[in-house]
């Protein structure tokens, strides 16, 4: 006999979220999520879909018609990008300088692609000269890079140089903008990015569940002229076109509440103004960076490629990273994260994203971290 579980009312702890995501959700987004459901083909929802697409274009700085929220987390948008653009037999060039380049590799391989690498150590950005050399050597069909590497706290500079090199070699450029969209300068069209995907739970301060994706016509032409269907039915963009394109016909039931949430989160971006929002992230994270440096701690990334949305701070000698993160969670209800992969044990990862990027959260973090390290 299966016993009836004795489960109480949901009372999650009230955390201050300053890890690598999710960030704190803006109260207006939470309110939008408690509004009534309509059907995913209701005329009022079709209007909401159009609004979300317009707001996403504004936030990505793109005119791409093909700009949609993918149902699922950032990895779903990532797989929609890679799994549709990479065809069996294609070669994809991916970076080795962080955790998420590795995930690009796994997805490209599952899509039937052959993967080649452009190397840089964890904690360093890609050098356009190395990308050019790898392009000359491998002549890839697709080039992926991570604009804001959450595992290392490195912001990839010189993006237009990278896309120029890729286009000189006729490769399609896919950018991971999960930790940059809405928090760090990003100009999809001006910088020549063909495909960009993101997640809502970082600088957009929205719960995960509907993940931004944009593709220009060149990338979409490649997708729509594939010889073999994409391997995922759910993420097949030629099928999703039926729902998000002109027809608005059923493909799957959209996560209505997550689309409401994304709409409100993106409305907040537009109200603030995208440039002002980038500036706010720089200012608050700048205070955080100055504060930890004043405590004698060292940032992992040099100033030239410091990533304001994700601050990687070196763990000082004699300190165990997990002791500090547990203490902050237990004593201060404050979440920050430890390192992963090549940087496991070496860094703290302190997010300063979206609604969590405020003067008061930074002050709280500084006081709590000071106490944890004393
Ligand atoms: N890419 C980057 C740079 C990320 O930081 C993440 C998540 O942290 C992802 C991709 C995957 O997103 P998700 O965990 O929402 O599936």
From TrEMBL:
Protein name, per record? Alanine--glyoxylate aminotransferase family protein
Task: Tell me which SUPFAM superfamilies the record gives.
Answer: PLP-dependent transferases (SSF53383)
- UniProt xrefs under InterPro entries: Aminotrans_V_dom, PyrdxlP-dep_Trfase, PyrdxlP-dep_Trfase_major, PyrdxlP-dep_Trfase_small, SP_NH2Trfase/AEP_transaminase
Determine the domain of life of the protein's source.
Answer: Archaea
Q: Which Pfam families match?
A: Aminotran_5
As for family, the record states:
Belongs to the class-V pyridoxal-phosphate-dependent aminotransferase family.
Q: Does the keyword Transferase apply?
A: yes
One biological-process term from Gene Ontology?
Answer: glycine biosynthetic process, by transamination of glyoxylate
- Tell whether Transferase is among the UniProt keywords: yes
Cofactors needed by this protein, per the record, are:
pyridoxal 5'-phosphate
Native organism: Halorussus limi
Keywords from the named record = Aminotransferase, Pyridoxal phosphate, Transferase
PANTHER family according to UniProt: ALANINE--GLYOXYLATE AMINOTRANSFERASE, AMINOTRANSFERASE CLASS V
**Where are the stretches annotated Disordered?**
1-25
The residues covered by the Aminotransferase class V domain are 38-339
């Amino acid at each position: 006999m299966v016993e009836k579980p004795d489960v109480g009312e949901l009372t999650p702890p009230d955390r201050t979220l300053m890890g690598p995501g999710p960030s704190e959700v803006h109260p207006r987004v939470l309110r939008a999520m408690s509004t009534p459901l309509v059907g995913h083909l209701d005329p009022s929802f079709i209007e909401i879909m159009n609004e979300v697409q317009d707001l996403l274009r504004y936030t990505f700085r793109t005119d791409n018609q093909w700009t949609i929220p993918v149902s699922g987390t950032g990895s779903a948008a990532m797989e929609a990008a890679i799994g549709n653009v990479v065809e069996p037999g294609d070669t994809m060039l991916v970076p080795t300088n962080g955790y998420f380049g590795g995930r690009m590799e796994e997805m490209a391989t599952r899509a039937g692609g052959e993967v080649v690498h452009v190397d840089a150590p964890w904690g360093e950005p890609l050098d356009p000269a190395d990308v050019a050399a790898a392009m000359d050597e491998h002549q890839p069909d697709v080039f992926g890079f991570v604009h804001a590497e959450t595992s290392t706290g490195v912001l990839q500079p010189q993006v237009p140089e990278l896309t120029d090199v890729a286009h000189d070699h006729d490769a399609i450029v896919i950018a991971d903008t999960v930790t940059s969209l809405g928090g760090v300068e990003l100009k999809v069209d001006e910088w020549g990015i063909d495909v960009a995907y993101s997640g809502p739970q970082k600088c957009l301060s929205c719960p995960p569940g509907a993940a931004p994706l944009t593709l220009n016509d060149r990338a979409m032409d490649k997708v729509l002229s594939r010889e073999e269907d994409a391997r995922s039915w759910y993420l097949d963009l030629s099928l999703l076109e039926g729902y998000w394109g002109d027809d608005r016909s059923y493909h799957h039931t959209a996560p209505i509440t997550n689309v409401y949430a994304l709409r409100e989160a993106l409305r907040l971006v537009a109200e603030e103004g995208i440039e002002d929002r980038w500036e706010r992230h720089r200012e608050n994270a700048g205070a955080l960076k100055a504060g930890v440096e004043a405590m004698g701690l060292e940032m992992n990334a040099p100033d030239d490629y410091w990533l304001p949305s994700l601050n990687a701070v070196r763990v000082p000698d004699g300190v165990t990273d997990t002791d500090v993160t547990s203490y902050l969670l237990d004593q201060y209800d404050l979440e920050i994260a430890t390192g992963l992969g090549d940087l496991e044990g070496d860094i703290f990862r302190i997010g300063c994203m979206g609604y969590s990027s405020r003067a008061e959260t930074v002050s709280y973090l500084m006081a709590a971290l000071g106490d944890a390290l004393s």
